[in-house]
Amino acid sequence: MLYRKMEKTGDELSILGFGCMRLPTKGIGIDEERAIRQIRYAVDHGVNYLDTALIYPGSEQLLGRALADGYREKVKLATKLPHMLVKSREDMDRMLDLQLKTLKTDHIDYYLIHSLTSSEGWRKMNDLGVAGFLDAAKADGRIVNAGFSSHCGVEAFKEIADGYDWDFCQIQYNYLDEMNQAGTEGLMYAASKGLGVVVMEPLRGGYLARNPPAEVQAVWDEADVKRTPAEWALRWVWNHPGVTVVLSGMNDERHIEENIQIAGEAHPNSLTEKELAIVSRAAEAYRSLNRVGCTGCRYCMPCTAGVNIPGCFEAYNSGGGTLSAKVMYQLRIGGKMDGSEPAYASLCRNCGKCVRVCPQHLPIPEHLAEVAKEYETVGARLIGGVTEYALRLMRWNTLRKA
């Protein structure tokens, strides 16, 4: 296992982190025996960064049991404060104290404000006193390091990064998302400020690890060194010196073994120019199969009608119209996670300003109409409403337990 230093904390962290959102299931819940066995296997083989969250069903409870028998002392534990459930400064303390109890520990090594998707979400937390909360929790030892996870664009990301003396951040990053969300620019900005960078979704939820389309496989076949699609994706992220830890939601023993093996060899700047060119061509091959050829460059933003154009296209391209994709579209684009204004595709006024500045010369209003037709049906809006209600119920239940 290779390790990289978190600059502000001095911790030597395994470049492979264990993401505990997609644990193995049995029936309608987590397969606890198998999940604990997997987590401990990873720790025994060098993984020392474990990531969970309050809103991952059953994850913190499972991890509290998995880290018994001396395993807690072997790892750095990361969990998150769900800002979408926070309504007051008191909520923050109550949720953190509940998490400490659930995880059976007296401190959280790496504590994040969870899934900030816009500037509005950060400003809400700031107004509620999150800086004072983090300062107090660090002072009394309940948390050691403070960070945030982000799914917002680069400008909002920079605003958040500048808004507090963070120790680290967590971003979605892979070879298809160089310009989506924080992207490479956000990664470099965070690194320039001395923030450690934890990467989530290096495989885009498993999409980049599956058997690739023929057009993509043809590109991989040209490489001198043969690698699996997952290895190409992971090595590409680890090739960036500014990345500290890459999270993988591992729930299969074969994947855990493969990832640990790769993490013992993936040094920064170890891919050759030819290999980097091959990854770029594979990315282009994937994009050529997208329903919309958006690269996420954000030249179209801000939209005068309030549409999150790249966010809509990201959901449309990566989700494939699945139920989970429609739920995330309603939550993120609909502003239900952070109280921001809805940025639906259907808000497009067909003014044409975005078309004139798009480097890909995309007929953006036409594509937005396609997104709205698929993701803004009555059923999709109903699902979004039910999910929003479920978040409120989760908040009530969480505070009741606290």
How does this structure look, described?
The protein is of the alpha/beta class. Helices cover 44% and strands 14% of the residues. It contains 16 helices and twelve strands. Helix 3 links the parallel strand 7 (76-82) and strand 8 (108-116). The longest helix has 24 residues, at 378-401. 45% of the residues are buried.
The structural class is: alpha/beta
Q: What is the β-strand count?
A: 12
Gap between N and C termini: 38 Å
Tally of alpha and pi helices: 16
Radius of gyration: 21 Å
Shape: globular
Largest sheet: number of strands, sense, barrel closure? 8 strands, parallel, barrel
In spatial order, strands of the major sheet run: 3-6-7-8-9-10-11-12
Helical residues, percent: 40-55%
* Residue share in β-strands: 5-15%
Calculate the mean pLDDT score and round it.
93
Order of helices and strands: EEEEEHEHEHEHHEHEHEHHEHHHHHHH
Low-confidence stretches: none
Task: Describe the secondary-structure layout.
Elements: E1 3-5, E2 12-14, E3 16-19, E4 25-26, E5 29-30, H1 32-44, E6 49-51, H2 59-66, E7 76-82, H3 89-102, E8 108-116, H4 119-127, H5 130-139, E9 143-150, H6 154-161, E10 168-172, H7 183-192, E11 196-200, H8 214-220, H9 229-238, E12 245-248, H10 253-262, H11 273-288, H12 309-319, H13 323-333, H14 353-357, H15 364-375, H16 378-401
Parallel strand pairs: 3-6, 3-12, 6-7, 7-8, 8-9, 9-10, 10-11, 11-12
Antiparallel strand pairs: 1-2, 4-5
Quick overview of this protein structure:
The protein is built from 16 helices and 12 strands.
